[in-house]
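Reopening: Alpha/beta hydrolase still failing for me.
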Amino acid sequence: MPPFLTYDDHNDICHQKFPTPLPLLLIHGHPFDRTMWHPQATVFARTRRVIAPDLRGYGASPVTPGITPLSRFAADIEELLDALDVPACVLAGLSMGGQIVMECYDRLGPERVRGLVLADTFPDPETAEGRRDRNAMARRLLREGMRGYADEVLEKMVAPYAHPDVKAHVHRMMAATDPKGAAAALRGRAERPDYRPLLTKVTVPSLVVVGSDDTYTPVSTAEAMHALLPDATLRVIDRAAHLPNLERPEEFNEALAEFLTRLNPPTA
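Support: Ran it again with your exact input. Result attached.
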């Protein structure tokens, strides 16, 4: 079993109306934890199994200092699915979590990953400048801790007009992250591959979601990623930045519900 603390809930109330729904595995972004998926986990656990782990180095999961490449996160996800006896699922990830979803699809293939949800993320490899910046940020977090960084980026992670409770939740997640875990992931992301060729070969349905006011991954980036995928839907969530699942949970859940219904349509 990989080093995860995992939210895992399941409810069978809809199994008479639907074929066995595919489990939904939610992969959080950086520098957050599994609680960023609370508005989704609480809703979708009514109709299917929902699994939301704390990634290695985040939340309550153990920290691995040094470097954690996306391939290591994907291997952890595979181990988690094996440990929970989940043969196939829908993978949803936001930001870094979306890149882990792409890595998982490359590793596990369409037999095990039946649908992709890519939220506020991008498939491009790191640039030379980006690699320098990520490694510099890793050093800064180890030197200064997380709070200054959390203060600095809060209103880029969520829009300035976001609800105060959402801002408080996001800031709390960032400030509570272990700097060693965050730094290891930053170093790993700095070495990520180019996922664009992979996306052109995806054979399962995909949902691309982005906040209309996201400055980290703008709508144009989501549109470019959507164009690469052979079978994809694009949803832009108005009045949201980088975390539309928290900023506009009703709209995000509506888009996700429509996508999941397509994968598990009602029986006659």
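The CA atoms of residues 65 and 180 lie 5 Å apart. If you still see a failure, please send the error message rather than a screenshot.
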